[in-house]
Amino acid sequence: MTLSLQIFQFILSGLTTGSTYALIAIGFSLIHNATGIVNFAQGEFVMLGGMFMITFYTFLKLPMLLGFVLTVFSVAAVGLLLERGPIRHARSKEILILVMITIGASIFIKGFSMILWGKNPMTLPPFSGEAPIVFLGAAVMPQSIWIFGITIGVVAALNYFFKGTMTGKAMRAVAASRRSAMLTGIPVDRMILLSFTLSGALGAVAGIILTPITTTSYDVGVMLGLKGFSAAILGGYGSMPGAVVGGLLLGILESLAAGLISSEYKDALAFLILLTALFFKPSGIMGRGRLRQV
Amino acid sequence: MGNKNKISLLIFALIIFTLPAILQNNYHLMVLNVAALNIMVVIGLNLLMGYAGQISLGHAAFFGLGAYLSAIFTATCGFPLWPAMIMAMVIAGIVAYTIGIPTLKLEGHYLVMATLGFNIIIYIVMVQFDAVTGGPSGFAGIPRLRLGDFTFQSDRQIYYLFWALSIAVLFFSMNLTHSRVGRAMAALSHNEIAAGCAGIDTDGYKVKIFVISGVLASLAGSLYAHYITFISPGTFGFFYSIQVVTMVLVGGMASLWGSVFGAILLTLLPEVLHAVQEYNVLIYGLILMAVLVFFPRGLFPGIAGVFAKRRTAVPPDSREQLALEKRVWCRK
């Protein structure tokens, strides 16, 4: 295999994982825009997505599509409960405290999953077969096409939601200024609730499509969350196109580094990219420098 | 540092140093020794969380950095013990500075993720770089603590050393919070913009506090390594970072006595809850969430507040503070 073909192959597999990072990054941005907090449980949503799908599809033998829908609803419900429970009832609404609450929730979800699903890694069968398709000389797994296609579908749907529907516009108004949104009669509390629910659903989708190629276990959430966060920072925190670009770029860089440099330190790279981005361009590729509000 | 604190510190030291006379079981002493080390880490972390308003989820990495570096310096390179520990502290300080500079200047909680990522990296290096660190099977044969010709052998001897050091750290931090630096930090934690307008170098102080807390964690890590004489990556994973953060929050942010209380309580708790080992993670998550939701100022100030209420009918500024915090939520 020639080097250029090899690089092409790495880029393709990078795009696959990068798509899921993009979904996770969008989840981070949604909650951040509505509330200003970094939701630590985002990675756990992804883990739960994989776990619920395994439960519905492998254990309960439900049809795949039904399992998919049920999983998305279940994890969205977890997001909803997180907001309705601890976040809403917190005595102090300081950002620091709320961020810590999501950390507590993430540990709780992890501990709960360990008891419920055990410590062994589990996997899902690919959606349609395992025979690789040859594309311009590189082998592509059908699952990669599924991942890429579903991500594009989700991003397009979200784009329509935010630009074309009243609720989506209201959510953008809340992101722009919570107080002004409240003054114009937008139910801010409900928008915050919706952002947590949507983030849960996005995490579930990411988890379902990723599990067939990577396997899942109770402790994968932290790493996936960190990758998604790095992608969000890289692209520009809080920006949707930024999250997509950041996710894909991170996926490609990681895949190239794993293939050409060292696969053992692959995970370390995501953090190095994060720190480099913070060093040189903290507003990210697509983000505008934010003015400091006094 | 007020007289009240001096007296409390003296009483605390008296209790701590008479305890070994009552405790005959070496295991109990060992648990308390670990608690003393945790106090050092937690006090450092509380300076960061309570005063600079920043969270670090990477203190296990600094703890591990101290442990591994001083193990490598002494056992592999053959350096003398105390200089090796100081070198480890200096390196940990430099690392904290390098991470702190870009992340602490930004608004928001970038430090959380940066430190979490840092923790994961350090863990990966500990496991993968096995030629130097011993990999997953750990690093054995670390020399015991020595002071001149005297080697600390028993848990009892270590007890006096560790608690003396951790009381010294407590004393140092109390002085720090009551100094010019401490007042600047207090102003910083109350309102960063106002503090900046008053001429306080807010970014500089945040970075400095982060470095101090990293160095304290490194010191505790070195002491741990030379006490147990065997270290493995598992001790320095993400979960330890969560544990120390929980200790800070249970004790109450910006309360140094709270940190002592939180560290001791949560070090002893797993010993009490031996039966539920499997549920350890779950319980930590629950405690963390419950304390934050119901006692955002920590359990210790909560308990102290109950006693204070008897004397003053209205708790000093808590109501005002709560109103303020509600407004923060609606602002933006």
Question: Can you give me a brief rundown of this structure?
Answer:
By secondary structure, chain A is an all-alpha fold.
Summarize this structure as a short list of keywords or feature phrases.
heterodimer; A: mainly alpha; ABC transporter involved in vitamin B12 uptake, BtuC; 11 helices; 74% helix; B: mainly alpha
Tell me the layout of helices and strands.
The complex is a heterodimer of chains A (294) and B (332).
Chain A: H1 3-35, H2 42-59, H3 64-89, H4 95-117, E1 133-135, E2 138-140, H5 142-164, H6 166-176, H7 178-183, H8 188-214, H9 221-235, H10 240-260, H11 266-280
Antiparallel strand pairs in A: 1-2
Chain B: H1 3-22, H2 26-51, H3 59-76, H4 81-104, H5 110-128, H6 130-133, E1 146-147, E2 150-151, H7 155-177, H8 180-190, H9 192-197, H10 202-228, H11 238-251, H12 256-272, H13 280-294, H14 299-311, H15 318-330
Antiparallel strand pairs in B: 1-2
Describe it:
The complex is a heterodimer of chains A (294) and B (332). Chain A has one domain: ABC transporter involved in vitamin B12 uptake, BtuC. Chain A is 74% helix and 2% strand. Chain A has a two-stranded antiparallel sheet with strand order 1-2. By secondary structure, chain A is an all-alpha fold. The longest helix of chain A has 33 residues, at 3-35. Chain A has 11 helices and 2 strands. Chain B folds into 2 domains: 3-282, ABC transporter involved in vitamin B12 uptake, BtuC (Orthogonal Bundle), CATH 1.10.3470; 297-332, no CATH class. Chain B is built from 15 helices and 2 strands. Chain B has helices at residues 3-22, 26-51, 59-76, 81-104, 110-128, 130-133, 155-177, 180-190, 192-197, 202-228, 238-251, 256-272, 280-294, 299-311, 318-330; strands spanning 146-147, 150-151. In chain B, a hairpin with a 2-residue loop joins strand 1 (146-147) and strand 2. In chain B, helix 3 crosses helix 10 (202-228) and helix 11 crosses helix 12.
